[in-house]
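A protein record pairs a chain with a discrete description of its three-dimensional fold. The following entry can be read in just this way:
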Amino acid sequence: MKLLLIDDHPLFSVGFAHALSQASSVEVLTAPTIKDGLDQAAAWPDLDIVLIDYRLGDTDGLAGLRCFGERFPMVARVLISGDEDPALALRARAAGASGFLGKSASIAALLAALQRVANGDVVFDDAALRIRAGATARQMEVLTLVAQGQPNKRIALELGIAERTVKLHVTALLETLGARNRTHLLVRAREQGLL
């Protein structure tokens, strides 16, 4: 398995890369930024997985997941974080991740999860995936931005879609979660563990 780890904390990235290579035959490259990671991925055509830390100095890992999805759609993308909140796992999935891993897991558990992703599986904690039937990845992105208080126009700009498409997603979310308005939608989403 060939893995690219993007993490701006040298102690973690070097230690993690060393631990993985000692525990298995994983080849690991590291990069401190999304830009550096994109450059390395371009030079490593048989890359299997990019593992992106959520908290990066220049951006966040969710944006990194989207960037890699656009440039390298055949490379599996996984978000890793010390913040093991189920809502973050949902946001990672909505951004195109094949998995979400917590930094508190053992090397053996992380390696097993990465091997599953390399084999084509998705790896998310079941508790994090309590998405009601019918909610798409794009709807989950819209929901996250609604929860941040963003108006439809700004959501449309951020996601690169039409404002009326945002309205359609919000309407679908209202129906899916049985909510009366945006405020009630956020209440229902929190009750369902989506936020």
Remarks:
- The chain has two domains: 2-129, 137-191.
- The radius of gyration is 17 Å.
